[in-house]
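Progress note, sequence design subtask.
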């Protein structure tokens, strides 16, 4: 397994004082471009895709599993736990691919009329290239484990067509944050956990490092785009953003992962639905996004009910 040595990327990830601080757009983009030049990886080269798959390693940190901490988890054999975590990791990756495809389209639309000579447009193009590699990397990791391509339900994918074709400004960048930061929180645990498959750890390291730049970019653009928004615009963005976050988070675990682990699907779904440990993990994973969006007035109203149902707040 190729080892990717990651330097501390915290300085690229978040503003250093108040959450809503933003720098000059072009200055920020120039710094992120410089970071990309220093720290970018090709997963087709950096990951040893032919390395053996240890039978006793989890597919992801088990504490992030939707059944961890339940009575059903306690009754499962270690073999079934390992199998379930592999399939849940693949399901999370599948949801990641789905939203990265949406993200890329939103970015292309956003920069369509901007000057390509500016650092802002050039970093957006760099991010799109990163997301192409990430999607390939996620797909390859599931394939290497011999797991089918899990994706959100058909009707969710079709409904998202309207979002990806029309979302702009703070709605587009706020939606990016929900998908990017929850995955970032998970993978920061995956990459450090020696109980986890080496491929998962290396994939997570690559994604965490490069995603830090994307999160910085999305956070500043979200704040910048909503700064002069009207009350009506903020209310509309809150509602659509809450709906988007709900479907992203509730699509992370495809119910078919339970069947793949030899579990009764209905029983497992009930256990996951009432699993307070998993809900707490989701809430923690989304906390930075919620904190930022709440500060700029993009949390509240009817959307809060959806965020509660998804265990985000």
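Output:
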């Amino acid at each position: 397994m190729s080892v990717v040595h990651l330097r501390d990327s915290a300085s690229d990830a978040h503003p250093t004082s108040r959450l809503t601080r933003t720098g000059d757009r072009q200055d920020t983009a120039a710094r992120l471009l410089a970071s990309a030049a220093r720290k970018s990886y090709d997963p087709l080269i950096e990951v040893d895709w032919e390395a053996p798959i240890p039978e006793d390693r989890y597919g992801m940190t088990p504490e992030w599993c939707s059944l961890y901490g339940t009575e059903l988890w306690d009754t499962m054999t270690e073999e079934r736990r390992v199998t379930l975590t592999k399939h849940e990791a693949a399901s999370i990756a599948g949801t990641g691919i789905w939203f990265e495809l949406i993200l890329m389209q939103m970015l292309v639309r956003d920069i369509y009329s901007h000057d390509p000579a500016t650092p802002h447009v050039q970093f957006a193009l760099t991010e799109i290239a990163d997301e192409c590699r990430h999607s390939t990397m996620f797909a390859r990791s599931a394939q290497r484990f011999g797991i089918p391509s899990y994706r959100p339900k058909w009707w969710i994918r079709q409904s998202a067509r309207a979002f990806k074709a029309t979302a702009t400004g703070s709605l587009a960048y706020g939606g990016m944050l929900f998908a990017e930061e929850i995955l970032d929180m998970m993978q920061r645990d995956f990459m450090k956990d020696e109980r986890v498959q080496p491929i998962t750890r290396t994939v997570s390291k690559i994604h965490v490092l490069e995603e830090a730049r994307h999160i910085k970019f999305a956070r500043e653009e979200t704040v910048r785009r909503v700064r002069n928004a009207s009350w009506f615009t903020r209310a509309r963005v809150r509602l659509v953003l809450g709906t988007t976050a709900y479907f992203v988070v509730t699509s992370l675990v495809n119910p078919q992962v339970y069947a793949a682990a030899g579990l009764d699907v209905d029983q497992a779904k009930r256990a996951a639905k009432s699993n307070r440990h998993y809900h707490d993990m989701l809430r923690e994973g989304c906390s930075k996004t919620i904190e930022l969006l709440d500060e700029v007035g993009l949390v509240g109203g009817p959307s809060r009910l959806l965020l509660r149902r998804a265990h985000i707040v």
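The chain is about 70% helix and 0% strand. Work on this subtask will continue into the next period as scheduled.
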